[in-house]
Amino acid sequence: MAVTPTVLETWGITVEQLHQDALVSDMNRHPMFCDMQNMMESMLFGKEPENLLDDGSGQSGMGMYCLTNGDKMNGAGLILQGDLMQQIGEIVGGDFYILSSSCHEVLVIPESMGMDVKELSAMVYSRSTRQKYPQKTAYPIASSIMTAKKPSWKMQRNVYPVLKKKRQKQKLQRRVFMIALEKRNSRAKRRKQRKLWRRP
Could you tell me the pTM of the whole model? Predict the structure, then answer.
């Protein structure tokens, strides 16, 4: 359901109130922060993955984590929860990267793993552009990863030169297409006018 200004007026609430209600609703859906290896094992063997938010343990065999909700549906919005980001930072022992996976979950990689940020960003971009409908899926966040740093734990977006060039190329291609379309429409308009002038 699309929440338009008309809907907000009908409900009698503001955008700010809607945002706060959405945050509360997300937290009521049982956030889950799991070790990626444990999550994969649970998918293979049908066991419930261990939620690190419950016991605070941050031991990981892969150095990668998954953040979602209990339903494992539409859980990526949990990255907007400031207190949750702080709790995750305490679990993993410091700053961390957030990689978009889908609208259902995100991947969390501690900065202490020493992974190359440019490669991570390129990996996310490459995966997103292979989607069947990239403009409707991961495209808005395809060219970057996000970083959560203490003490605020606010999301910071990272865009790197190699990806900037790809975005610039895409913009140029769209511009060339629009110019060609305008020229074609202009020629069609002139032909139509000439036909009108030639009529007796």
Answer: 0.65
